[in-house]
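Hi again,

Forgot to attach this to my earlier email, sorry! This is the prediction with zinc ion bound. I've pasted everything inline since the attachment limit keeps bouncing my files.
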Amino acid sequence: MPRPTSAFAVHSPTSPFQPWSFDRRDPREDDVLIEILYCGVCHTDIHLARDEWGGASQYPMVPGHEIVGVVRETGSGVTKWKVGDKVGVGVFVDSCRHCGPCRSGLEQYCEEGMVTTYNAFERGTQTLTYGGYSTQITVQQDYVVRVPEGLDLPGAAPLLCAGITTYSPLRHFGVGAGSKVAVVGLGGLGHMGVKFAKALGAHTAVLSHSPSKREDALRLGADEFIDTSNPEAFTKHVGRFDFILDTVSAVHDLNAYLGLVALDGTMVLVGLPDPMPVGAFQLVGKRRRLAGSMIGGIAETQEMLDFCAQKGISADIEVIPMQQIDVAYERMLRSDVRYRFVIDLSSLK
Ligand code: NAP
Ligand code: ZN
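Structure tokens for the complex follow:
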């Protein structure tokens, strides 16, 4: 018995969101059915809804991969979850489970390709996946994480993508006490990057092209705010940072930011504007590294949520009804998000 589900969808790269309904699959033996309470709005939702990645988008599209909710039903073989559990679902809902990355808890780098929460086909089928701008979702139990007690549900939703995407590279590249970190772009990802870099003990700067965010950056815990709309930023701070986390969503001059990386330092791209040319001299001259990083695996996502509960970390959010989604996108495109929009799905009921 398929499950009729209310949602908001886009039907083309240029059309606004519209109410839409579709059927979720009935929970299989190892599935859980989750009532979605909140879903964060990621800039990736905008890139995909507007087909900014060269034809990668499938329509109708129901975006949303920062999902928190409550388990309402479990399949007969489900061992990990029970009805009433508070859970989260992030950027992917399946992977091959047998390749090297999957077996190492790096499902996001699955050699057969992770199945993303929306805009992908369920493995071996032509069935499109639909995301969290909807009232419920059926997910295989291994791709669900627990939202620990003590984390506020709407503030936890953005942790499922913005949180893990910034936590994972900071941990992987060994950021800690004594590190000098700069986070580029104070949006959804960036503000979580600042919170995590500080919680890990690093000296943390924000590199932002919005001078109006200075006070917020300091309130979020940053030790300094550097206004990149002033060209002096790129001459005054040359070679100062061991680690730069670049979360910018729009094309920008990577070479200018690379100049701020120290000898043997690393700049990690998590933002996904493409393409952006890189000059060899900017890397070679100071043995700098330029790397990328994509979300995090299931186990690391759970580790990050537990870390947040322990340290009292959650996202700074603005809760919106589903009907405000087009306005939220326009505001994000103007860098006017403080610092994550979270949809309250009760607005669809
Ligand atoms: P967001 O909330 O819209 O924030 C992006 C920030 O980038 C803005 O707030 C702004 O910060 C800065 N920015 C925007 N335009 C700029 C420009 N022209 N020059 C310099 N800075 C600019 O976006 P988000 O949700 O954090 O996502 C950021 C990017 O990460 C997106 O491309 C998204 O697709 C990608 N992403 C990647 C992963 C992954 O796994 N790697 C996961 C999630 C998202 P200031 O106003 O402070 O300058
Ligand atoms: Zn995301």
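The chain has a mean pLDDT of 98. Residues 298-311 form the longest helix (14 residues).

That should be everything now.

G.
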